[in-house]
Design a protein that fits this description.
Length: about 230
């Protein structure tokens, strides 16, 4: 059984997609980050960094419970556990490279672009331009790479595609105000539609939909989401 600590944001979405693709037995543990549930001592025992996603595999190696945090680490762990959606041995370097590119570049810069355009109390033009342009640059790297390719690594759908899907799903917020944010990236658009059409993607989007996650951006939420600002 996989206990899956979840909030409906891009990084947990990647894990939801893997779990649905693999048909693993899992339990969703809603973790409302706007209420600060990621800062409790119980959750910090699972992820000391205080962020979702995180998992506890109650049937880890040797029958021991195993905690795994950070979306890239979770994808690698689950791919190795199941033997699915991993790369061919000859593509291992490519897989690790693109997972790192997404986890340290495309994802964080996209997240900061969303924050400074839509969440920051002051809309600072320099900061917005900096993060939005860097998000665009990362998109362009992926756009060029996908030219003539169906998937990001090798010839098969893999955890690299799942990882990118989580963030590309947010393109409308990353490029706020653009009604067709993938128009400038036709290869990404084509690839995204391939992943989006998979039945597991529809199921992944429903994960946690029955839980009333807090939506108000009041003082409690701001302190929970951005504690270093206070």
């Amino acid at each position: 059984m996989i206990r899956f600590y979840f909030h409906p944001t891009p990084n947990p979405a990647k894990i939801a997609l893997f779990l649905e693709e693999a048909g693993l037995d899992y339990e969703v543990v809603p973790t409302d980050t706007s209420k600060g549930e990621q800062h409790t001592s119980e959750f910090r025992a699972i992820n000391p960094n205080g962020k979702v996603p995180a998992i506890v595999d109650t049937d880890g190696p040797g029958g021991n419970a195993v905690r795994v945090f950070d979306s890239t680490a979770i994808l690698l762990y689950l791919a190795e556990k199941t033997g699915r959606f991993n790369s061919a041995p000859e593509d291992r370097g490519e897989l690790l490279s693109w997972l790192s590119f997404i986890g340290t570049g495309l994802g964080p810069f996209s997240g900061q672009a969303v924050h400074f355009q839509l969440a920051a109390p002051e809309k600072l033009p320099y900061v917005i331009n900096r993060y939005r342009r860097e998000a665009e640059r990362h998109y362009q790297v992926l756009e060029v790479h996908l030219n003539g390719r169906e998937y990001i690594v090798g010839n098969d759908y893999s955890i690299a595609d799942m990882s990118a899907w989580g963030w590309i799903s947010m393109a409308g917020r990353v490029f706020s105000g653009d009604d067709n944010p993938l128009a400038a990236f036709p290869n990404i658009k084509r690839w995204f539609e391939v992943v989006e059409d998979r039945p597991a993607a529809s199921r992944a989007r429903l994960v946690g939909a029955d839980h009333p996650f807090k939506k108000e951006r009041d003082d409690e939420a701001l302190r929970a989401l951005f504690p270093s600002n206070y």
